[in-house]
């Protein structure tokens, strides 16, 4: 019966795990989960404290979001101060200082004029796609109803976002028959530091030219493909896509949800190619990992071509989220994040080098504060997590990837601890 039973309070770790098994469905798992779940009781600085007393160095920044670490006094205070005024107010017909300030800051940082707030990265991508299609229709080209992207990408778990994820090797292949069919270029060849492949550039030219009449936009993750495989590619490919979009009157959407705010060594992935997209999606690190918030930005030209955008998340522009986002971006501007990311990159390169020659390891790659060991075969997630946790580290591997995206506060010793754990995990393959 609905409403029956008391709210559970004061339970211990074992009780929480039991209730979790009974009622909670975790991301990317079956019910019950085949991968162990661990109860966190506290998160401070760079570390998570588990219910059994163990402390783990978080090498994931809570899925790439907590770039300043946990329990940061500046961010804590921003939430407390905003809570004294209001926790939430609808954004339809109303506005407030934290959201307006954040929009101004993001516009200044990106060179894009208009900011549409959302509540998750997937929704930000959905909004970007709607913007592109409405712009095509509003500018007299309603036949442009497709998108072009590259294989190996990941843009979120909602339907529009799934339709531009990798259709063969991505995690959403079960839905392929239900999704809109878009145009996919091959996987970008080589890595970030490799020479651009002229044949691939010609293939991009040919593909865009052949489909330009039906393309509303090109959508890509700049320089780094995230959850689709943690691959890096040369900025020349991104630069050429910008040129092709301009040549054919197509919009360019940059999904910077994973790459934004310094993760790759530049503030945004697009900065590696010195380009500005027409539409940009932001999320994850936007609030420093404190609250869910995302944004879709566009140029004035795009906004003028769209007119009325029929979208409006209930928690759009949430005051608490935008207030802590402002504090996080202020903190990022003050800290030497470029030097921090370079230090992390150097530590990852040094610490992961040993794994390159190990049996079962396909590739080792590093860019900015991203370190990846790619295995030849799919990994046993539970087994790998046991190994890294034994080394005092929290990672969340998937597919054929043992990877890290640590907080920027990580020093040389912490990066060495993370890489030792990753190499030890690779040694068990």
TrEMBL record:
Annotated protein name in UniProt? Adenosylmethionine-8-amino-7-oxononanoate aminotransferase
Entry's localization field: Cytoplasm
Recorded catalytic activity of this chain's protein? (8S)-8-amino-7-oxononanoate + S-adenosyl-L-methionine = S-adenosyl-4-methylsulfanyl-2-oxobutanoate + (7R,8S)-7,8-diammoniononanoate
* GO biological process assignments: biotin biosynthetic process
Query: Gene name on record?
Result: bioA
Q: Which cofactor does it need?
A: pyridoxal 5'-phosphate
Q: Which EC numbers characterise this protein's activity in its record? A: 2.6.1.62
Q: What is its main location?
A: cytoplasm
């Amino acid at each position: 019966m609905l409403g029956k039973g008391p709210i559970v309070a004061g339970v211990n770790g074992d009780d929480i795990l039991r209730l979790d098994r009974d009622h909670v469905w975790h991301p990317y798992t079956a019910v019950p989960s085949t991968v162990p779940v661990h109860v966190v009781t506290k998160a401070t600085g760079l570390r998570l404290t588990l219910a059994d007393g163990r402390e783990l160095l978080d090498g994931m920044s809570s899925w790439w979001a907590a770039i300043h670490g946990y329990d940061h006094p500046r961010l804590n205070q921003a939430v407390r101060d905003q809570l004294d005024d209001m926790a939430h107010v609808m954004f339809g017909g109303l506005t407030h200082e934290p959201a307006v300030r954040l929009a101004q800051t993001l516009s200044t940082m990106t060179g894009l004029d208009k900011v549409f707030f959302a509540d998750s990265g997937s929704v930000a991508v959905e909004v970007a796609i709607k913007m592109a299609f409405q712009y095509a229709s509003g500018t007299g080209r309603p036949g442009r109803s497709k998108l072009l992207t590259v294989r190996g990408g990941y843009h979120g778990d909602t339907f529009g976002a799934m339709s531009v994820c990798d259709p063969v090797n991505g995690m959403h292949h079960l839905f392929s028959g239900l999704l809109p069919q878009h145009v996919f270029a091959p996987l970008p060849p080589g890595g970030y530091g490799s020479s651009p492949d002229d044949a691939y550039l010609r293939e991009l030219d040919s593909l865009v030219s052949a489909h330009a009449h039906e393309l509303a936009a090109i959508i890509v993750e700049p320089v780094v493909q995230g959850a689709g495989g943690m691959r890096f590619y040369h900025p020349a490919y991104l630069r050429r896509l910008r040129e092709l979009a301009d040549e054919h009157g197509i919009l360019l959407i940059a999904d910077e949800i994973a790459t934004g705010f310094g993760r790759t060594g530049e503030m945004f992935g697009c900065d590696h190619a010195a380009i500005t997209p027409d539409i940009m999606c932001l999320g994850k690190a936007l609030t420093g990992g404190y609250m869910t918030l995302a944004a879709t930005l566009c140029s004035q030209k795009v906004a003028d071509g769209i007119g009325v955008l029929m979208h409006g998340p209930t928690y759009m522009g949430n005051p608490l989220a935008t207030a802590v986002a402002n504090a996080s971006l202020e903190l990022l501007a003050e800290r030497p994040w470029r030097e921090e990311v370079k230090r992390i990159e150097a530590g990852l390169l040094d610490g992961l080098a040993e794994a390159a020659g190990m049996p079962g390891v396909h590739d080792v790659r590093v860019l900015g504060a991203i370190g990846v060991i790619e295995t030849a075969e799919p990994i046993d997630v539970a087994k790998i997590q046991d190994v890294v946790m034994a080394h005092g580290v929290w990672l969340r591997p998937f597919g054929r990837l043992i990877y890290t995206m640590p907080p920027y506060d990580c020093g040389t010793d912490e990066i060495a601890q993370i890489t030792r754990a990753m190499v030890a995990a690779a040694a068990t393959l």
